[in-house]
Amino acid sequence: MNILFTSLWTLLLLGRLVRSQQLQRRDILNYLLNSSAYDARIAPDYEKDVATEVDVQLFVTSIDSINAISMDYSMNVFLRQTWRDSRLNFSHISNISVLELDQRRIDDVWVPDTYFQNEKSASFHTITVPNELLHIYNDGFVIYSIRSDLYLCMTSV
């Protein structure tokens, strides 16, 4: 009952904002991420029984500590991933083209569970805040980037 009331209230408020053309980025994010239709634990095309196509880019900033004896090395990278999530399409409610999420809201969006097969360990940069960004475009296109230190072995484990 409470969820139904909250959803109806959100729709009424959104309808008023759209009619008055005062829809702000915060309102769009609240509409997209706080609705009962969006669950960050579920992949975008899960209900269609189709895998989500994710494009991955790796920008290597440094390769360090190459050890020929233990067959491992470390590297600092920016991991960038892009995909489309139709649940995050907001082109029908606003003319804003892109939303940049704050660090506190990134966990509210589904992100791929990408891993490195030859990883021994990894860490994410968090000084002074986590080094990650997430942009949502009005057609549901998502860009996610994170900076990481990887400790990898030269052979598969």
UniProtKB/TrEMBL annotation:
InterPro entries: Neur_chan_lig-bd, Neur_chan_lig-bd_sf, Neur_channel. It comes from Magallana gigas. GO terms for molecular function: extracellular ligand-gated monoatomic ion channel activity; transmembrane signaling receptor activity. Residues 27-148 form the Neurotransmitter-gated ion-channel ligand-binding domain. Keywords: Signal. SUPFAM superfamilies: Nicotinic receptor ligand binding domain-like. Pfam families: Neur_chan_LBD (PF02931). GO terms for cellular component: membrane. Residues 1-20 form the signal peptide. This is Neurotransmitter-gated ion-channel ligand-binding domain-containing protein.
